[in-house]
Amino acid sequence: MTDAHDTHSDPSGGELAIPIADPGLPEHQWRPTDVDPAKEKRAERQVATLFGLSALATIGFLVSYFTLDVGDDWTLIGNKGASTIALGVCLGLALLFIGVGIIHWARKLMADHEMVELRHPAKSADEDREVAVQALNDGIAESGIGRRPLIRNSLLGAVGLLGLPAVVLLRDLGPLPGDKLYHTIWGSGTKEKPMRIVRDGIWTPILASDLEIGDLVNCQPDALHNPERYDMDPTEVEGVNAQVIKSKASLVLLRMNPGDIKPGKDAQGKSRENWSVNGIVAYSKICTHVGCPISLNERTTHHLLCPCHQSTFDLADSGKVVFGPAGRPLPQLPIAVDDEGYLVAQRDFDEPVGPSFWERDYYDRW
After folding, report:
1. pLDDT (tens digit, 9 = 90+) per residue, 193-216?
2. Vertex 322, ends 316 and 325: CA angle to 5°?
3. How many structural domains comprise the chain?
4. Residue 226 to residues 142, 197, 231, 235, 251: CA-CA distances in angstroms?
5. Pair (338, 300) in one structural domain
6. What pTM does this model have?
7. Residue 157 is inside which H or E element, if any?
8. Number of helices (H), then strands (E), in the chain
9. Do 279 and 158 share a structural domain?
């Protein structure tokens, strides 16, 4: 009991007067589980049962996910989606049983001593902080989690199983890409019909003789406009497929003085000296940081700048990163000229284009 003249320590070093006298607390009422071991054990089993029901509901979620199709209906409840209902009910019950179990645990088995304390400034005194940590440790001890393995283990099992639905639902993000990230349509050409490089938007092939030093051209593969030339089904390069192809195959051509080029090495350690044509080099237009399209060219330095996060690549030196957050050089496409003098791809990129991913191998070019 305190009165209006009592004081309380202030973190700044002074004392704060208690504004209202402490009215005290009524006499503590013991619960049945506090005085009857049999009822205590029964409450413990009830809590563990609730946690066990949560685990069963989580398993029901997983079974429903893999056995019910999205289009299945349950006619008995108004042609509602069986999958949606089953997943929602099972996950809801899993969370509900854990919540009810924790409440039942707290009300029947955890210590229920009442506490009264004044509000204090945002930063408590060191003594108060030590008291708070001690109170937390006391609370953990009084909860009985250390001496009630049945409750502890059933809770850990129920909560642990709840992580599985989150993992399973990742499947709905779409099918895994497999090796699709490693290939682009540039590799669809043949020795007789190599893939031509065409101007983006107008689809005209590019004569090597038409480019002057300093010219930068945004390009796409000719198959997007003329699939029949490469014996491809036109439906393969339409709609969404066309956008996916462009997202990986977009290209930039830059012509510079041939003497400025520093040929690097390919994945097999061979020189890239024959990857350019009279100073014309071709690189992926997709930044290796987060995939932004790049086309800001510094003509005198041959540096290509990404507008998103300012990653800068040296197109005269194998697309090497010279500034910014990108961690990989721009992939280079080996090019040549066909019998008519048009620029073509010799083959596909020798590494994946775009941002990095875990399974992506890399080799040291320098």
Report:
1. 999 999 998 999 999 999 999 999
2. 135
3. 2
4. 76, 12, 9, 12, 17
5. yes
6. 0.57
7. helix 149-161
8. 7, 14
9. no
